[in-house]
Amino acid sequence: MTIADSNDWDLDTDGSFTVDFWVNLDSSSSGIDEYFVSQWIGGGGYTHTWDIWKGVSDTVYFTNSASYILSSVTIDFDTWVHVAVVDNNSTVKMYFNGIEVASGSSLSINNDNLPLTIGAREAGTGGHQYYLNGYMDELRITKGEALWSSNFTPPTSESTATANTKLLLRMD
Ligand SMILES: [Ca+2]
Ligand SMILES: [Ca+2]
């Protein structure tokens, strides 16, 4: 699904941010590029906005324009995994089920006019590509707030919005 561009997805403007969701990937996803959430389009180099996706090595990238952080472990299949990307305005970290799996210096994120795309990314030739083969739940985008700073217990019930939450898709 896609949602039109909004200042709410321009994650850099308020410094810190958090993007988190649950995902249950089918085992047939192994070895395939698949996108969870993105403001990105194929082609044109790395001038786009940001994305969270799984590469062919089954590790997960958070890409922000010029660089990325990459999970140090592969993501599990056929089970629900909580994925979080948290930027506190100096460091960006990724967590699987509340355990830190990647860390790096936060980088500036471009502002583009691409739609927010969930479960795929825009293909440069039109349409979409790299479809997710699985399920997502409780996608939440929080701007201006780092929800976690170290390992945490992921939510055990529906995620809650804070005053800084810009998007919360229940997927129910
Ligand atoms: Ca924008
Ligand atoms: Ca739900």
Nutshell version of this structure?
Helix content is 0%, strand content 43%. The protein is mostly beta strands and 172 residues long.
Could you characterize the architecture of this molecule?
There is one protein chain. The chain has 172 residues and is mainly beta. It has one domain: Jelly Rolls (Sandwich), CATH 2.60.120.200. It is built from no helices and 14 strands. It has strands at residues 2-3, 17-25, 34-39, 50-54, 60-64, 67-70, 80-87, 91-96, 99-105, 116-118, 121-122, 128-129, 134-143, 165-169. The strands form three sheets. It has a six-stranded antiparallel sheet, with no helix packed on it. A six-stranded antiparallel sheet has the order 9-8-7-2-13-14, with no helix packed on it. The chain has a two-stranded antiparallel ribbon with strand order 11-12.
Strand order of the largest sheet: 1-10-3-4-5-6
Low-confidence stretches: none
Intertermini distance: 15 Å
Classify the fold: give the CATH topology: Jelly Rolls
Question: What CATH architecture label applies?
Answer: Sandwich
Largest sheet: 6 strands, antiparallel
Q: Which class of secondary structure composition applies to the elements?
A: mainly beta
Spell out the helices and strands N to C: EEEEEEEEEEEEEE
